[in-house]
Amino acid sequence: VAYPVELLEKSDCLSTCARVYCVTGERLLHSKPQTLGPKPDSLSGPVDQQSLQAKQVLPSPLDWKSFLSSTKEARLKTDSSCLAMIEAEQGALFEVIRRALQSLRKNKGPIQEQRKEISAVIQRCYKRYKQYALYKRMTLAAILIQSHFRSFHEKRKFQQSRKAAVLIQQYYRSYRHSLRHISYPCLLAYSSLLTKKQNQAARKILRFLLRCRHRAKEQRKARGPESSTPGSAHSPISL
Q: Is residue 195 part of a domain?
């Protein structure tokens, strides 16, 4: 069984602290309490002062360091002895590892095939989505182009019709202005032309009337005086 490293380190620290606490407690218990007494005489020997100093002096840092290192080494040895596996356990562990590797190798091929199939399906779907997005963008662009072209065509037709209307209005206004400001000789020529046509028509009418009158006289002469009646004195055509 494998223990985590952090747990081992925490257990080592706790064990060392407990041991140090026990050692210091034992020393304090075995040490005699200091009693207040008279001051020692200066004549007393230096042996009493040395003994008092030896009792009051604490262990040095080197002693503490060596003590802690020794306890740590002992703890590591005990832990390593506890963690050591026997041959049967090692064989069982190797067998479990071998079976895990075999199952992983067996499942590796199908997993790779599944990954390939999944990647192919994803690629197919992505290509179809790209084609659909491209088709949608093309249709939107075609609709936009058609709408712009229709609006441009209608605008162009309106501009052409407006320009033609403006030109027609300009020509009509210029024509009316020219009719209003015709010169007097032109009017005389136009009036003379009208009178000439009227005179020609009057002459034709008079010729026709004279011809009719002459025919009536000739017919009357051909009939003679017998055919004359009292009502025939009046001429059929009077001018």
A: yes
Can you list the residues of the chain whose pLDDT is less than 50? 1-8, 10, 28-30, 32-47, 230-239
Q: Is 179 within a domain?
A: yes
- How far apart are the C-alpha atoms of 109 and 112, rounded to whole Å? 5
pLDDT (tens digit per residue) in 93-150: 888 888 888 887 777 777 788 888 888 889 989 999 999 999 999 999 999 999 999 9
Q: Cβ neighbours of residue 83 under 8 Å, at least 6 residues apart?
A: 1, 2, 3
What is d(CA 10, CA 82) in angstroms, rounded to the nearest whole number? 17
CB-CB contact of 75 with 23 (8 Å): no
Describe the crossing of helices 61-83 and 5-30 by its angle, rounded to 10 degrees. 130
* Locus of tokens 């004359």: 228
Instruction: Look at the chain and report how many structural domains it folds into.
Output: 1
Fill in the DSSP letter of residue 233.
G
Residue 148 in domain: yes
Task: Give, as one character, the DSSP assignment of residue 229.
Answer: -
Q: What is the pLDDT of residue 34?
A: 47
State residue 53's pLDDT score.
55
Q: What is the DSSP letter of 181?
A: T
Residue 44 lies in a domain: no
What gap in Å lies between CA 20 and CA 18, rounded to an integer? 6
What range does the domain containing 129 cover? 92-218
Among candidates 120, 4, 135, 12, which has minimal Cα distance to 68?
Answer: 12
